Amino acid sequence: MEFLLVFSLYRFILTGILIWDDGDPILKWLERSGADPKETIYIGDTTYDMECAQAAGVDFGLAVWGCRNHAEIQCLRRLERPQEILALLEEDEEA
């Protein structure tokens, strides 16, 4: 993932847009950024986040450090610590 794309996502999240709905905010970000949904992962800590990622057709990573019911939430990746997000970016650069 390119730095610009990561920075763009960071700015998008900071805008305060509620993400947990029918996936529209993620779809709008994908459209604006030109990111490929097949290469995108949305990271969150609630069932609502998971549902939003599913509705947008992107993978979901569970931020376990902020989650109360992590055993009940389906995800592609379980992230135990925020630092693991950086590992995802490094994996992407190696691919």
Q: Which short descriptors sum up this protein?
A:
three-stranded parallel β-sheet, Rossmann fold, 95 residues, single chain, flat, 13% strand
Layout of strands and helices, then pairs:
Elements: H1 3-14, H2 24-33, E1 41-44, H3 47-56, E2 59-63, E3 77-79, H4 83-94
Parallel strand pairs: 1-2, 2-3
Protein name: HAD hydrolase-like protein
GO molecular function, one term: hydrolase activity
Pfam family, one: HAD_2
In CATH terms, what is the architecture? 3-Layer(aba) Sandwich
Question: SS-based structural class?
Answer: alpha/beta
What proportion strand? 5-15%
Number of E-state strands: 3
Structure description:
With 95 residues, the chain is α/β, with parallel strands linked by helices. It has one domain: HAD superfamily/HAD-like (Rossmann fold, 3-Layer(aba) Sandwich). 46% of the residues lie in helices and 13% in strands. Strand 1 (41-44), helix 3 and strand 2 form a beta-alpha-beta unit. The longest helix is centred in the N-terminal third of the chain and has 12 residues, at 3-14. It holds the Pfam family HAD_2. Keywords: Hydrolase. InterPro entries: HAD-like_sf (IPR036412), HAD_2 (IPR041492), HAD_sf (IPR023214). This is HAD hydrolase-like protein.
